[in-house]
Amino acid sequence: xxxxxxxxxxxxxxxHKEYLEFLDVNSDFPSGQMQIAxxxxxxxxxxxxxxxxxxxxxxxxxxxQSKMNLALIYYQQGNIxxxxxxxxxxxxxxxxxxxxxxxxxxxxxxKGDNANAKKYLKEACVKNxxxxxAFYNYSLILQGEQNFEASITEINTGLKLFPNNERLLYIKLxxxxxxxxxxxxxxxxxxxxxxxxxxxxxxxxxxxxINE
Length: 212
Known about the structure:
This protein has 212 residues and is mainly α. The protein folds into two domains: 1-94, Tetratricopeptide repeat domain (Serine Threonine Protein Phosphatase 5, Tetratricopeptide repeat, Alpha Horseshoe); 130-212, Tetratricopeptide repeat domain (Serine Threonine Protein Phosphatase 5, Tetratricopeptide repeat, Alpha Horseshoe). Helices cover 79% and strands 0% of the residues. The chain has helices spanning 3-25, 30-42, 46-59, 64-77, 80-93, 98-111, 114-124, 132-144, 148-161, 166-178, 182-195, 200-210. Helix 3 runs antiparallel to helix 4 and helix 8 (132-144) packs antiparallel against helix 9. The longest helix has 23 residues, at 3-25. The protein is elongated and about 65 Å long.
């Protein structure tokens, strides 16, 4: 190890030691336990992260950020019941927070519960902060029900908030293709090519439309 590498290593050790001391000083607070949990997550110490998130929530049942983070871990682990319970708690405590509804929508969609997936994704589209993925996934469900016009209405609402969002434009294009509305599908395919000129699917769709 040369002198520069040694200095960098010593600086890192010092900064890391100070950070651990900071975590320890704040460990009696829900936010402190959340930071400890995040620290464990970064190190892939998931069981320790879960313990810290649970402790954070035990300190303050209204500390929803820890609930959201823990619910995501449960969701990723396949603990759907655990994630569902936490996300529902957040919707009850913070009814205007859209991301908890969005995650419930994804969760129910994964379970094959189409009615609840649709319900919560629809809610997510009118909550804050605005989430383009909520519009995307809700519109996909509508298209799966062959309800293409309603899907386009939702997509247009999403595009007002997120102009030229590629994913929303793509499923809008699919809706018009299913409706066999070439006049409306063609300009969307052209716009998508402008946004992503290397996407061969967009090019193929455009070429098929102009060759009809």
